[in-house]
Amino acid sequence: MPVMTHLLGAAATLALTAGGALADPALIFDLGGKFDKSFNEAAFNGAQRWKAETGGSYKELEMQSEAQREQALRRLAETGANPIVMTGFAFGDVLNTIAPDYPDTKFAIIDAVVDQPNVRSVVFHEEQGSYLVGMMAAMASKTGTVGFVGGMDIPLIRKFACGYVQGAKAANPEVKVIQNMTGTTPAAWADPVKGGELAKAQIAQGADVIYAAAGSTGLGVLQAATDEGILSIGVDSNQNHLHPGKVLTSMIKRVDISVYEAFTAGAALETGMIAMDLAKDGVGYALDEHNAALVTPEMKAAVDAAAARIVAGEVTVHDYMTDNTCPVN
Amino acid sequence: MDLMTALQILDSTVRLGTPLLLACLAGLYSERAGIFDIGLEGKMLMAAFFSGAVAFVTGSVWLGLIAGIAGAMSLAVVHGLASITFRGNQLISGVAINFLASGLTVLIGQKWFALGGRTPALSGEGRFQPIVLPFADSLRDVPVIGPVYYELISGHTALVYVAFAAVPISWWLLFRTRFGLRLRAVGENPAAVDTAGISVTRLRYAAVAIAGLLTGIAGAYLATGLSAGFVKEMTAGRGFIALAALIFAKWRPVPALGATMLFGLLEAVANRYQNIDLGGVVIPVQAMQALPYVLTVIILAGFVGKAIPPRAGGEPYVKER
């Protein structure tokens, strides 16, 4: 009998794999756009890597407005795309209502938790990566003041900010952190002019390292920091190359790995929640030829030691989203 | 708050207020001539894109400026055709222009640079550099006047001075010249202008073209003065705030300067202080961000004087019925 079960199981898997070979995976980008040099672009890179390695093809869709989300998901599900991967917390509610309508389709959502049997929720521990770059910011700062510019004021971005402050305070308890949010609407993700003004206001208050977690608004922050001759920290993708020698580091969020893994799994995608943290290399800081001269050996040693202690569980970085408060600011 | 902080905030006010001022004056010309223009946003976006793209390709910010003005002007012509020649609904034409610019900039940008509608980052000659006015350095140490001159008045890009110069020029043009009188008349009573043997169509086209020119400068300032390149939807609602400022200024040039700088100041203060603590009462930053719109509603409701738009605004002129 066990043999029989095994055989049936194998047959089922085979059938699923066959189905998966027929159906293309799909990727939906959030409003920031595919080439935001940041979050969505990381997802795109993951999909491209899968395409290059397997020679397969995938469908993709870029959101143009809030109202399109449900329609886009339904359309892709009805054309047989499987699995459907989407980037961004904003898909959470929509997916929660749609997923039960397509029980045979697997969905993967990045940055949100959707409790449905056919959904994989990938959440990143951005607070851990932000903690590391916060330490670097505090160590690189000469004025003892560092800045943070967030995009839209949502708990997710507060989570970045909170991790950053914790890291900065860990490296230098005396450090002052100036925090600004760009706005309260999705327009806050794409306003480099305002990002630049926020950066200049922070520089006027003494900040000499500024961390931007704000989509393309962050490009304005990095530009203003470069113009004013101070350091900045990029986010999500490795943004060190945007202003070589001026970007201290980037907080990397390996959205590309999540997309790649989901595409590779195909229709056999395991559902449930996946937490991408430091231990899984889901988050981290970027070190390449563009910022090698900025990161001192002491800085690297301190950050790597902190990373090891976070992985070992000796240091816990508070996650803003668990209780919507931050212990430090 | 010390003098330095105040100057930094005012400096930021000037930077943030300038695109609003240019767009507001653009709207002023158009609406004074009886053409409502809610397409300011779209024209600025178009200008921002073309100035960023051409400045990158040619390496010259001045060619970028010209391309930006041409981009805004082409949309102004579309608006003119729709609302003057074909007597269409001006509001719908304006909305269409906003959508058109929003989509077209990204489409062309993606085709051209393959960066998702962004244009590559500009540097050096591709951007407007700050101009240090004469004696700024030598006067720097003079108390009060020195820092004000050095920090606030000097050190902006050329387009900021253009925008400020446009205010008295607009006042003179609208209120002291024959052209200005006719332009205002065509927004109040086009039939009277027509009876006097002056072409309503030509005057209205002139007004719409001036609006195109000014929004072109505003867009170029956003992409090549304030930031270093175009990013999709980078106008972020500034065209609409400019319209609010226009109502606030009751369609007059000098108050337009005051209104746009007030809105710029509110944004600069909100950028500098996230939450303002006034002796126990904390004003959240969102309140500051909403204030321009709240003020406009108060003005519209007639609490502070009365805002009366040009009488023939929004209505296409039909010679004979």
Protein described:
The complex is a heterodimer of chains A (329) and B (321). Chain A has 329 residues and is an alpha/beta fold. Chain A has helices spanning 2-22, 39-54, 69-78, 92-98, 126-140, 155-171, 192-204, 217-227, 255-265, 297-312, 320-323, and strands spanning 26-29, 59-62, 84-87, 107-110, 119-124, 145-152, 176-183, 209-213, 231-236, 247-253, 272-276, 283-285. Chain A contains eleven helices and twelve strands. In chain A, helix 7 crosses helix 8 (217-227). The radius of gyration of chain A is 21 Å and the shape is globular. Mean pLDDT of chain A is 88; it is low at 11-21. Chain B has one domain. Chain B has twelve helices and two strands, in the order αααααααααααββα. In chain B, helix 2 crosses helix 10 (238-248), helix 6 (158-176) runs antiparallel to helix 11 and helix 11 runs antiparallel to helix 12 (285-300). The longest helix of chain B has 30 residues, at 3-32. Chain B is globular and about 65 Å long. The A-B interface holds A 33-37, 41, 179-181, 183-184, 187, 190-194, 196-198, 200-201, 204-205, 216, 219-220, 223, 242 and B 5, 8, 12, 15-16, 19, 106, 110, 114-118, 121, 222, 226-229, 231-234, 236-237, 267-268, 271-272, 274, 285-286, 289.
List the main descriptive attributes of the protein structure presented here:
heterodimer, A: 329 residues, alpha/beta, Rossmann fold, 2 domains, 6-stranded parallel sheet, 6-stranded mixed sheet, 11 helices, 19% strand, B: 321 residues, mainly alpha, two-stranded antiparallel sheet, 12 helices, 2 strands, globular
Q: What letter string, H or E per element, gives the SSE order of chain B? A: HHHHHHHHHHHEEH
Helical content band of chain A? 40-55%
Assembly type: heterodimer
* Molecular shape of chain A: globular
CATH topology of the largest domain in chain A, by name, is Rossmann fold
Query: How many structural units, i.e. domains of chain B?
Result: 1
Number of domains of chain A: 2
Q: How large is the count of helical segments of chain B?
A: 12
Q: Give a quick account of the main beta sheet of chain B: strands, pairing sense, barrel closure.
A: 2 strands, antiparallel
The CATH class of the largest domain in chain A, by name, is: Alpha Beta
Order of helices and strands of chain A: HEHEHEHEEHEHEHEHEEHEEHH
